[in-house]
Amino acid sequence: MHAVRQVVGTLALLLLLGCAHGGPGQAVAADPAVTEKIIVQWRRQAPDPNSVLRQRALPVQPGDDVAGLLDKLRAALWQTGGVGIAAPQLGVSRRVFLIKHFTRPAGRKVEVTAYLDPEVVWHSDETQDDYEACLSVAQVGGKLPRWQKLRLRYRPESGGPAQEVELADWDARIAQHELDHLDGTLYIDRVVGELTSIAEMRRLRDEGHRARGWIQ
Are 86 and 177 in contact (CB under 8 A)? Predict the structure, then answer.
């Protein structure tokens, strides 16, 4: 019941000149040392099967400090420059994540939305291959398929009845990445082929996004 209040580590905001992104949709921090201090890390060379990253997160519980958790998630999202973040990445076993919407295609105002107890109620048969990285898996990236579109049912942070939203392309990919975190799955479990360096992942990802007209 008190897991939300037991986040380990300091999440005070850094003195940043704007967003930590090196470019729209960047999925890792400009300074990896910052990320490793804030985000629970999966050590590929010494994996811990009991890590919160490998457990199915619990639904939000009565009495949870949801507002406090969301504040910490927002602070961590901006500090690290990610496009999404899930509560287990802060060591909290709750089915909550944030998405930074509209980072791709470029040109729209970015919006951050909180999703409490999200579930997929529909997804397309069509998939897209694309490259991903993760704040919890340092300095590597890889290519994997995701559904091109999906519909989520979730509870909004403002309260009230459950809502539904349909997401496509990059935002749908982010949602699936974060949903995996809530189920104890990491993107590296789904990668097709070899992992690459983060620099090579960015190059290949951006090359593909240019071909789709998402960035210049």
Answer: no
Enzyme catalytic residues = 178
Tokens of 35: 């990320």
What pTM did the predictor assign?
Answer: 0.87
Contact 141, 205 (CB under 8 A): yes
Residues 104-149 pLDDT 10s: 999 999 999 999 999 999 999 999 999 999 999 999 999 999 999 9
What are the domain boundaries of the chain? Answer: 3-7+20-211
Whole-angstrom distance, CA of residue 194 vs CA of residue 131: 12
The residues, any chain, with a CB within 8 Å of residue 178's CB and separated by 6 or more, are 84, 85, 86, 97, 98, 99, 115
The alpha carbon dihedral of 170, 74, 88, 22 has a sign of: positive
Question: Exposure string (b/e) for 34-44, b if CB count within 10 Å is 16 or more?
Answer: bbeebbbbbee
Contact 170, 131 (CB under 8 A): no
Tell me how far apart the alpha carbons of residues 85 and 69 are, in angstroms, rounded to a whole number: 12
Two structure tokens written together for 158: 């403002």
Looking at the domain covering 3-7+20-211, what would its CATH class be? alpha beta
Residue 126's SS3 state is coil
Identity of the residue numbered 32: P
Judging by DSSP bridges, how do beta strands 127-134 and 137-147 pair with one another?
A: antiparallel
